[in-house]
């Protein structure tokens, strides 16, 4: 049986040895470029979001891991003074070719649950030393056994949703000598990725805002020639959508937006609309995390908690739509804001057929998903697969509303059985 070493002993050994030489070799990145889209004999694609998420995670972890194998520690037990309280103590401060990193060490399983919160606190402290530094400017390294499912999910959330540069190593000993310490890179299982991604693209998870506005003489009008809009109208409506996408990215909203103009023959009060759709985080409930908290509240408070949280998200999305139009149109434009059900929007002819749809722009995870699908189609064609009627320039497909709509509509899945099976697994506890 391998001797159990104290955290202090492990700390001193890492400081004396340096971290780079302790990191175990791994071949996990040898096939990380595997496509997240498969094609059948007819060239039809079968997109699976979890494969994209795994692909994205491995790409990011591969870069971080490469930096860590050529890094050096420059500080041990670094005290971080705080106002009037006991100073925080950072286990290690280090540097690599692409910048700096902080390392938090947790050897005991009982301390594992606090590891992420402490690491986050240290990261914020160091970030405040450098004005305007972001979540990707500092690499966060966690060395811990990581047994609990909750901790595994926290790691994936930080890595993919918060988009933080974070990497995790598990300390292992092959003998009862501390010199046998190796730090093994942690990679989530396929089941973790599947659980993390299930239902993220379901229609029920989407919140939609339609911000309608009038034509602007000389800039945006409803005139058509052979069924097509004027070039300047198309240009300006697409510019509105592009600016809105920038706001959505800044807000870290995962979704898409576009501008819509009804056919000239269809009488409407507002001729144009900016449409925003985004994944609503308060419609994607993780029972593993929520039930232990919610069962401590009165039933009526549980209902109000969810309603208020979702209402707050609605207000956030409405504000983005309103700002996008106020920032891009004339002063004080007349705007009407609505929130139709996305499941209705995606299937109604009046919303999808009898309209000019311009400036489709995907954001966040939905952008990654759609672009990954496009990349797979181009790679499929290049390898001799069935012709997919793609433009030679990928960006034309990225902003192609019809193809994007077909893809997004097809991603409205819900793998409830897989979720229930996965949630039946228990954490590994002492």
Please name the defining characteristics of this protein.
five-stranded antiparallel sheet; disordered C terminus; elongated; 41% helix; alpha+beta; 430 residues
Description:
The protein is an alpha+beta fold. Helix content is 41%, strand content 22%. It has helices spanning 7-17, 49-68, 112-127, 149-161, 190-197, 231-250, 287-294, 299-328, 342-345, 349-352, 364-382, 394-398, 401-410, 416-423, and strands at residues 37-39, 45-47, 72-82, 85-96, 99-105, 138-143, 166-173, 181-185, 206-213, 224-225, 228-229, 255-262, 272-279, 335-338, 355-363. The protein has a six-stranded mixed β-sheet, sandwiched between helices. Strand 10 (224-225) and strand 11 (228-229) form a beta hairpin. Helix 2 crosses helix 5 (190-197) and helix 6 crosses helix 8 (299-328). The chain is elongated, with a radius of gyration of 25 Å. It starts with 6 loop residues before the first helix and ends in a 7-residue tail after the last helix.
Which word captures the global form? elongated
Structural class by SSE content: alpha+beta
Please compute the radius of gyration using only Cα atoms. 25 Å
Strand content: 15-25%
Succession of helices and strands: HEEHEEEHEHEEHEEEHEEHHEHHEHHHH
Short description:
The chain has 430 residues and is an alpha+beta fold. It has helices spanning 7-17, 49-68, 112-127, 149-161, 190-197, 231-250, 287-294, 299-328, 342-345, 349-352, 364-382, 394-398, 401-410, 416-423, and strands spanning 37-39, 45-47, 72-82, 85-96, 99-105, 138-143, 166-173, 181-185, 206-213, 224-225, 228-229, 255-262, 272-279, 335-338, 355-363.
